[in-house]
Fold:
Amino acid sequence: MFTGIDEVDWASLRHAYGSAEDVPALLRGLASADRVERETALDGMYGAVHHQGDVYDSTLACVPFLLALAASGEVADRAGIVELLVSIGGEGREDGIPGPAGSHGSAPGPTGFDDRVPGPAGFQDGYSLRAAGDDDLCARAAVGVRAGAEVFVRLAGDADPSVRRAAPAALVGFLDEPARVLGLLRERCALERDDRVLQALTESLGLFVRRRPGHAAEAMELLTTLSSEPYAPGLRLAALGQLVTCAPDHLPADLVPVAVGLLRERSARRSAGRDGVGCPHSDTLASRLRRLRPSDEEGSQLLRTLHRGLGDRLDLRKALLRGQLTSPDVIDRCNAVWMAAGLLREWRADWTEPVSLIGAQLGVEEGRLREAAVSVLEDLHTLAAPAADDLAALVASRPDLWVRRWERGAPTLGGPLKALARCGDQRAVPVLAEVLDGPVVPDDLGYVIGHLGRSAAPLGAALRRRLGETPLDSPGVFERAVPLLSAVAALGDAEAVPEVLRVLRGVPAGARLRDAVVESAVRALDAVASEGTGAHAPEVIPVLRQLLGTKYAAVVAGPLWSVEGDASAVLPVLTAELAEGRPRRRAAAGALARLGPAAGPALAELRRTVRADDLWERVAAACAVWRISGDADLSAPVLRAAWTQNPHTRRTITSCLVALGPAGAPLHDLVRAEVNARRRHLALPGGGRGSQDVLDDERLVQACGEVLAGASGRK
Structure:
C-alpha cells in the first residue's frame, strides 16, 4: 500500500497549512487497526490535504496511496477513503464529476517542473506534480482518480456494505465505459439485499442518466422498476426522487400521495435502533459529525432529493410538505420542519398553511421537534405570522424560555419570544417589558424591538432608562448601546434625545467599535427628527454641527439637514467628501439625495462619482443625481446595470424609485419583473442563505409595490 511513499519529497509539497511533511503519517493512520487513529487521520485529510474541497499538490500525491488503501481488504473504514477519493476527483468539473479520460493535458505547467512521483504498484502512471494553478490541480486530480477506476469496480461487490454503498458514485464518476457501468449497476441491483446500498445504487442510476443521456433509456427503466412494488418503501422513494429529476415522464400521476404513503409506510417499518443512536464513537471530527446528523438522515435525504427535483413546482412541494408535517412520526415531522426552512427561504408564495403546520409543532412534548420549529420560525420574521397564536401560547406557558443563557457568552432573547416579536405580534410587548425590567437583559433585545415598530411604544421609558444606565467606558459598550439605539430609532422616540446625546458626547475616543456606536446614535437622532426634536433642538444642533467637522460628516449631514434645514451648512462638507474620495463617499451621496434640488451645487462631483470604480458609490451617486436633477439619462443605465450585477443593490435602488414617483418610470420594468419573480432575489438554490435575506426580500417586494402604486397615483 505504501510502496514509494518515502521517495516522495513531501516537505516540498503543500497543503492548507503549509508543508505536507505530516501527510505520510496521515496516510498510514488510515490503515491503522485503531479506530480513533483512523478517524483522526481522516480528519487530517479533510482538514489539511483536502481542506474545504481544495486540491493541492500534496492532494495529487496522495491519490495513488488512497486508491491502494481502498483496494486493500486489510484496511477498515474503506468507505470513508472511497468518499474522499470521490470528493477529490469530483473537483475537476463544475458539476462535481470528472470529464472524460484524456480531456485534461499532462504537460508541464507554466512554472516548469514535471516530477514523476512514485506510488504503489499498479498506480504509478499519470501522477505528475508541478507548481500550477488551482484549476489545473483540480483537473489532474480528476484524471488521477480516474486512472484507478478499476478499484471501484472491485469494491462494488465488496463484502463490507458500507464500501458497496460508497462505490456506485465512483463507478459513475470515473469509469469511462457507459455500457459497462450500466451493466455493473444493473447486476448489483439484482444481487444486492442491503436497503442502504440499493438506495446508493438508485442515486447512482439517476446520476448516470444525467451524465450519460445517450445511454439513459435502460437506466430510466431500472429506476421505474425500483419505484414500484415489491420493493421496500425507502427504495421506492429513492427511485421516485431520481425520476423527478431526470425522467419526469416516468412518474406516477399521483406522485405526492404515493410519496407520502411510502414515507409513512417506511416510518412505520423503521426499527428503533437503526439510526445508530447510542453507538460508541471517539471524539474526532468525523465521529462528531456523525452524531450531529439527523436521527433519520436517510429519510431526510430521500425527501430532500424529491423536493429538489420538484424545483419550482411549488403546489406539489406544498402538498408534499403538508404530508410530511402531518405525519404520525415525530422524526418525519422534524425533518419536514428543516426542509420547510429551505423552501421558504428560496421561494415567494403563500406559505400560510406550511407555517401554520410548523407552529402546530410547538405544542408537542418532543423537545427536539419543538426546538426545530422555534428555530425555523424565528428566522422567518413576518412570514411567521400564521404561527403567532402557537408562539404566543408557548411564550405564555414557558417563562423559562424568555431568555436563553449560554455556557459561554452573553444571554440572548429566547427563540419563541424572538420569533413572536419578529413577526410583529403585539403580544410580545408586555413580555419584553418584563424582560427589560428583569435582572438580565439580553443584548439582542433592542434589535428585536425594532421589528415591532411603533406598537412597542410602551417600552420607551424602559429603553431610555437602560440606555441611560449603559456604561460608556465599558469594553462592551457596542454590544450594550447599539441594540438599544436601534430600538429608539424604530420607535422614533423623541423623548430619548437626552440619552442619545449622552452616548454621542460620552463614548470614549478609544472605545472598541466607537465608529459604529457613534453612527448608530446619529441614526437614532435622524429617526426621531421626523417626530420633531422640539425643546431638545438647541442641544442637538450644536452636537451635530461639531460632528460635521469630523470623519462622521457624511453620516451627520442628513440628520442635521432634517433638524435645521440649512443646506449651506452641509453642502460644502458633503461636496468635499465626494471630491476627496473619502471612505464615506457613498454616505455623502445618500445625504445629498435627501436635500433634493437644494443640493444642485454638488451635481458636478456627483456626476463624477457615478463613474466610480466602486459599485455602491456608483449606485448612491446615480440615485442622488436623479433625485436632485431629474437626469434619468445618466442615472438609469447605471442603476439598471447594478440591479442585474448585484441583487443586494435592489433595495437601495427601489428606495430611490419610491422617492422619484412617476419620474422613475425608466426602471419600472425591473420593478414589475421583480414583483412577478418567484425566487427570492438573494436566494441560492436550496434556500442556502440566511434569515436576513428573507426579511430583505419581503421588504423589497413591499417597496416594489409602493413604486408601482406611486406610478399609478394609488395610495
Notes: The radius of gyration is 31 Å. Strands lie at 14-15, 18-19, 115-116, 128-129, 403-404, 412-413. Residues 91-132, 271-282, 288-294 have pLDDT under 50 and may be disordered. Residues 160 and 676 are 52 Å apart (CA to CA).
